[in-house]
Design goal:
With 34 residues, the chain is mainly alpha-helical. 88% of the residues lie in helices and 0% in strands. The chain contains one helix and no strands.
């Protein structure tokens, strides 16, 4: 059973969550600083 697609899926989810977190954090910082 190939596991490559599982690692790809998990990696994509982690990258997506990290990107969304950075965007939200950056938006909060920009909003707080004016």
């Amino acid at each position: 059973m190939p596991m490559d697609w599982i690692y790809g899926l998990v990696g994509g989810v982690l990258i997506g969550c990290a990107g969304a977190f950075l965007l939200l954090g950056n938006g909060r910082v920009m909003g707080a600083s004016g």
